[in-house]
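ok so I'm stuck.
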Amino acid sequence: MIQVTNLGLRFSDRKLFDEVNMKFTPGNCYGVIGANGAGKSTFLKILSGDVEPTEGEVFMTPGERLAVLKQDHFEFDEYSVMDTVIMGHKRLYDIMKEKDALYMKEDFSEADGMRAAELEGEFAELDGWDAESNAEKLLNGLGVDSNLFQKKMADVHSGDKVKILLAQSLFGSPDNLLLDEPTNHLDFRAISWLEEFLINYDKTMIVVSHDRHFLNKVCTHMVDIDFSKAKMFVGNYDFWYESSQLMLRLMKDQNKKKEERVKELQDFIARFSSNASKAKQATSRKKTLEKINIEDIQPSSRRYPFVGFTPEREAGKDILAVEGITKIVDGVKVLDNVSFTVNKGDKIVFLSRNDLAKTMLFKILVGEEEADSGSFKWGVTTSQAYLPKDNTEFFEGIEYNLVDWLRQYSVEKTETFIRGFLGKMLFSGDEPLKKCNVLSGGEKVRCMFSKLMLSKANVLILDEPTNHLDLESIEAVNNGLIAFKGTMLFTSHDHKFIETISNRVIEITPSGLFDKEIEFDEFLDDDDIQQQIASMYAVSTN
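replied:
not stuck anymore, here's the structure
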């Protein structure tokens, strides 16, 4: 159990937290949410002891063990993968090393024997004999190849390091678990395994994540950090979002009678509780939603951008034909004889274990790169707008303010018109006069969406469109693209984003394409499909 009492934190003249009081108890998973810069990661650092609060205190039940997902990918480079995971339980690891050192001594004394006996007893109590097999189960679940288990961390690819450090934090069933963006850089199969692991975890868990599907699957409570305050709500992310939006609408409607408002809220709680109880979610096993009172529902003070795309004209039947595209980058064939046809209204998610393959395909289709062989043809009625994963070239070294920056992409040049588009993306007041070179990553992406909306294209090509965005912006982009009537080609690591938008999946493997019109959840849950794709990757390694 972790308890926070009268917590406050100041940085110079900025108050990040003020009088925060809450308790985190075993058997629950708490999702920490808030706008970029609100202090989510700092809050976890305060709980872990890495940052000292200026006011108040953090209390953890004596004798309980705390585990934190490490963010330094080079900290364990001199250790083996197996040792790195077991180091997640420091006391167990220290015992193992002390035992080894004692047994290696040539002049093993009686005192050494007594000490070794003490260590063996504690080693057994901490389940030390199963330490390696338990570590292997975690690594296998996260998709780390067994060939890496005895390698040094310095020799491991960065993607696998992420999984190994996550396994380290989970090792030994810590009493209190703090995870900051645990799904970052994980593939969907590893995320699914992690979700099931955490759903069945009966200790105290606190997570920061921008992955809404993950928050919905594992969280029993949400902690909303906003305006220096932190408030705790029962339920998962969707319940927090939908209930706060409902309350906001009801508060704005002053003509509704109080009894009608109460009835609408009661119906909402009952409906949501019923739906959640049928799903395999942490919220169902806790049945927390059934205990919610109307007083627990409060409107959010968050601001949400508006994202809406209106094509200038409707595309015809012919959208895109791709034939035999091949591309070699730095001696590696990332695209091999890629062929597919895009139909009107398709919203295709492109997947691959090689992110470069997806990005390179998109760059070829928009004319930024040339294929080594093959061809593609856009329909004559199509107009394309492209959101790259890396938008540096649009902002680097540019001295424009935001109004002048966006004006260069607009037919209508008046400042009032331009400010209107920037306002939709939450740039209001004097913010449109900010220089481009001082923007944060999330602000740059919001500017790029203003640019995309101005294009009025009927085909959107989006490479990781939710990168750098906070949850509010992700919700807005998600809703805008659901409503988009044109055609989309996109990549994403956001499960809910894909699930709610795509109607077709194309996975690029080294030995060919998997291409099917299918719901994303059905694609992930179909064992035959997953085995087929696994075999397509395996062919390239043989």
